[in-house]
Amino acid sequence: MGPVLAVVTCDACRGRLAPALLSFRVPLRLARSVLTEATGLFVLGVFAVSLLLSIDLLSVLAQFLIEQEAGPPVVAAMLAAKIPWFLHLAIPVAATFAILTTAARMAAGSELKAAQAGGVSPTALVVPIVVWGLFMSGLALVNNGVLEPRGEARYRAIIESFLYDRPPAASERDASYRVEGNIFHAARLRADPDAPGNATLRGVLIRFEDGSVLTAPSGRWLAATASWHLEDGQFIAPDGTARGFDERAVPFPLEVNAETALVTPGLQSIGALIESIRRLESLGADTRTLRFNLHRMLADASGATLFVLVAAALGFRLLNRAASIGGTIALIAVFWVLWTFSASLFEQQVLGPVAAAWFTPAAVALAGVLAALPWRRP
Q1: Which DSSP letter does residue 144 get?
Q2: What is the Cα–Cα distance from 277 to 288, expressed in whole angstroms?
Q3: pLDDT tens digits, residue range 208-246?
Q4: Which domains does the chain have, with CATH numbers?
Q5: Are 284 and 74 in contact (CB under 8 A)?
Q6: Helix, strand, or coil here: 186?
Q7: Are residues 261 and 275 in contact, defined by beta-carbon separation less than 8 angstroms?
Q8: Residue 23's pLDDT is what?
């Protein structure tokens, strides 16, 4: 009796699941047609967005280029180095535009009605579109996490070749370390180019385990003696009494010097960020900003897929290309507001690094789900 019931139950399950699974099947020819059209529009959108960004960049740098008498080869090299930066925004924007326009044209041309008459629902068309979006997210991840940091390094090298005889020293703001239970903090930490391994300190605060505090406007990190030397500072005892001092050395027994402890300035690749987080966490340093940058990089790349999902949900309801362009602009505007707002929430410490980084993609994903709900049948 048991096997018979199992067979009956499985047959019932197949009877209920089969229509649902069939509703997601898309003829290969139709999927290829949709994605081919979307890819062509995507390439066009990438060129358009990159061109607009390059014009804006040239207008910003025009005065600098004229003052430094930079020739066409230098300008071309600077623009080439900025291509990954252009693509950071161009990939999700162009993907959104491509899907919205393709879906709107299909809706206006009654292709969706024809597909439904053939047993293909708009819900099923979302499947190949999302797969296409995942490919775009992979492309964005490589660009944002590998190519863009390299391009920014080349761009900075060109700028610095005009401004400095040698590259500026590495520096970090709001650097904090926990060493043997004591908290060492500097508002600004800058490597000393004349003494490798040492650093200058600004806005120093040291809190000891017993509750006493040392503050000083300036000082130096000396690697040879593994200490921080503070100048014109103040010592505050646990009972609140304070007294000033002209100079004071505080042991700072880190196994690395300032040169290796400093985070590489500027944009870092995914691998470099992970290594910096691991290294600084081993030193007891604050890695919130680095973790935010890492997750922001991953979240921005995922935005291509989420944008495509929302674009597909909206595009099948639009009737012309003008509406699709307007939808693209509206979607990007909302994204930009949420993107900057989430960064402010992180800076104000309202959200942690992971929550702040994924706040915008989560909001976009929610919008996609809400936009897709009307497709569901009771």
Answers
A1: I
A2: 9
A3: 988 899 999 999 988 888 889 999 999 999 888 889 988
A4: 23-163+295-375 (no CATH), 171-264 (2.30.30)
A5: no
A6: strand
A7: no
A8: 44
**H-helix segments, 199-254:** none
Strand order in the sheet with 242-251: 171-179, 182-191, 199-207, 213-222, 227-236, 242-251
The C-alpha atoms of residue 305 and residue 53 are separated, in whole angstroms, by 22
Distance CA 13, CA 119 (A): 21
Q: Residue 128's closest CA among 47, 262, 24?
A: 24
Bridge partners for 199 per DSSP: 191, 221
| Tokens at 290, concatenated | 């680095």
Q: How far is 257 from 261, CA to CA, in rounded Å?
A: 6
Q: Looking at residue 228, what is its pLDDT?
A: 92
H/E stretch holding 197 reads none
Single pTM value for the model: 0.65
Q: Which two tokens stand for residue 152?
A: 């920014």
Over residues 345-350, mean pLDDT: 88
Rg (the chain; Cα; Å): 28
Q: Choose the weakest-confidence range: 5-19, 43-57, 190-204.
A: 5-19
Please answer whether residues 355 and 341 qualify as being in contact, where contact means their C-beta atoms are separated by less than 8 angstroms. no
* β-sheet bridge partners, residue 229: 220, 249
Question: Distance between CA atoms of 202 and 172, rounded to whole angstroms?
Answer: 11
The owner of tokens 């293909």 is: 120
| 140: helix, strand or coil | helix
Q: What is the largest CA-CA distance in the chain?
A: 93
Hey, is 292 helix, strand or coil? Answer: helix
Query: CA separation (Å) from 129 to 27, 68, 223?
Result: 13, 48, 56
